Structure formats: C-alpha cells, structure tokens
Amino acid sequence: MITTAPTRALVASLVEDAVTAPSMHNAQPWRFLHRADTVELYGDPAREMPRADPDRRALHLGCGAALFGLRVAAAHRGLGAEVRLLPAPEDPWHLADVRLYGATGADEDLAELRPALAERHTSRFPFSEERVPAEILDGLRAAAILEGCRLVVPGDWHTEAVMGLVHASALFEAADTSVRAELARWTRTAATGEDPGTEGIPSYALGPRQYDVTSPVRDFDPPRQVPERASARFEKDPQIALLGTVRDALREWLMAGQALHRVLLRATLDGLATSLMSQPLEWPELRPLARDPLSTTGFVQMVLRMGYGPRGRATPRRPVSEVLAFA
C-alpha cells in the first residue's frame, strides 16, 4: 500500500467525476475538502430543501451517490479508497472521509463502471413496452447488495399501488404552494434573460408533457412556462424497482445513495434508460405505503423507472472550483 498524498490535479479530476452523480432536482448538495491523503465529503446547507426534504434524506442520498462516483473514479485511476461514513458525530454536515492510497490491484468492478459516469443521464421521455430481461434485473439486484441495500422489482399489484402513490403525490404537490415554489427554484424554463445556471433542471431535460391522463414522470413545468414543449404518450406499464434499506437513518441514507448510483451506472452499461420517481417518498403520508408489506426491505429510499427509450441529455454541473477546497 502506497500512502503518498495525491496531487491537487488528481483530486480535482476525481471530484469532477464524482459530481456527475444524480441529486434531487439537480441541486448538487455536496462539498469536498482535500486534506493530505483524504478527501472529506460534506453536505451543503445552502442546497437543502426544507419543504420537500425536511429531514435531509434526499440530500444524503445525493451525497452518497457522489461518494460512490468518487470511489469509481479512484478505482479507474488505480487507487484504493477507504471510506469512513459519518466520521465526526459533532458535525452533522461532515458525511464521509475517503482515504486514497495506491493499491496493488484496484477494484476492477468499480473501475468498469467509470465510462457510465459520463453516459448516465435522467431520461424523462417515454420508454417502450419492451420488458427488461431477467438476467439484467438480477445484475441490478446484485449491484444494490454490494452496497448493503436491496433492490426489489415489484409484481403487478405492487407496481400499480406505487404508481397510484406517484399520481397521489402529484395532487399533493399541486395543492401545496410552498412545494411548488421550491420546485420552481430548481427549474430552468429558458425564459428570456434567465441565467441558464450550473444547477437545477434545464428546460431541455424536462421531457414531453403527458398526452394521456397519467404519466410516470414528474412534470417540472405545470405552469406551462416552457414554450413549444411537446406532448407524448408514456408507457402503459412502467417498469420500476424499489431501492430499500433495513433501517432508516443517516448511515443507511448514505449507503442507499451509493447503491443507487451503482445500480444506475450498471443499468446504463446494460443499455437501459432510467429516471427517478422520488415524488411519493417526499410525503410522510405516502412513503410507508410504497413498501410491500411482505418484503423484508424495511424502508424504501428510491423508486427507479427503467426501460428502453431515449437517453437523457447531460444536465449542468457546478465547476469543480466551486465544490472543492484544499486544506
């Protein structure tokens, strides 16, 4: 094991890969600090969402996803990454430490995922009705298990129940002005004079409006501020999976974020398009109902939609200089 401290240029390149991670509304709620041979990961209080994410569960998932991206980037460069979650209990924003070291053999399974970091993008477009093969689903389940989580592919009745929760959450959202205001903060409509920004959901990533009564994709533009946005029919039977943990605390949220990113990257390499359906999990009245009562998975942390269809486009990311500091 070689413990020579990595250069600033190397750390910056690792963080550049890490910040491709998904996060709620593309808020990018992470900060990194490089100190000697360690990269410290922090949550960013300026990017929390008090209304939709009051306990910061989604913030931890996003930071966990960025942590996994850092691990993938390190493995790609032949480095080992020793992760310590929640290293400073007195500081709730200090989420993880990653000690980097030269390894005699980097984790090849992680390194294999690195091309998907640049290819994985949320797709809010209709997917075909073609079913995902069982062997691919088995690989996605295995990916979640490697990160201490479980991925459940629900049966017909459970899928229908979850989709009902998705549609119920849309009604909840429409009736809550504070939630809509928070959502609008992170939506870019391409209006004249609007700063395109390096964060949030840009207009080109919104996808089409639903043509039918229901859609598995969240509509980020219910006021219809995006001009000439097309309408489309979405798949009749969405293929979804539920990512869950046994417990529901800070550590498990960080684990779930890492598992989420691992599953999404594996799905990308397998040729799948994906999107996230967090809507019903943002309402305490609905989240417990997403779980199959017969399942050993205690808490649902994310609902994933997957299938065959158009890949999404890359959404903006803040420059590394804004999210990385050096001690």
Question: Can you tell me about this structure?
Answer:
- The chain is α+β, with helices and mostly antiparallel strands.
- 32% of the residues lie in helices and 18% in strands.
- It is built from 9 helices and 11 strands.
- It has a 5-stranded mixed sheet with strand order 3-4-2-1-11.
- A hairpin with an 8-residue loop joins strand 3 and strand 4 (94-102).
- Helix 1 packs across helix 2 (57-76).
- It is globular, with a radius of gyration of 19 Å.
Report a brief summary of the structure.
The chain is an alpha+beta fold. 32% of the residues lie in helices and 18% in strands.
Strand content: 15-25%
Strand order of the largest sheet: 3-4-2-1-11
Report mean pLDDT, rounded to a whole number.
93
* Biggest sheet features: 5 strands, mixed
Oligomer: single chain
Structural class: alpha+beta
Reading the helices and strands in chain order gives HEEHEEHHHEHHEEEHEEHE
Query: Tally the helices: what do you get?
Result: 9
Q: How many strand segments?
A: 11
Which residues sit in consecutive blocks of at least 5 with pLDDT less than 50?
Answer: none
Outline type:
globular
**Radius of gyration using CA atoms only:** 19 Å
**Termini separation (Å)?**
24 Å
What is the share of helical residues? 25-40%
Write the layout of secondary structure elements.
Elements: H1 8-18, E1 30-35, E2 38-43, H2 57-76, E3 79-85, E4 94-102, H3 108-111, H4 114-119, H5 134-146, E5 150-152, H6 156-174, H7 177-185, E6 209-210, E7 231-232, E8 239-245, H8 250-269, E9 273-276, E10 299-307, H9 320-323, E11 324-326
Parallel strand pairs: 1-11, 6-7
Antiparallel strand pairs: 1-2, 2-4, 3-4, 5-8, 8-10, 9-10
Helix pairs in contact: 1-2, 2-8, 5-8
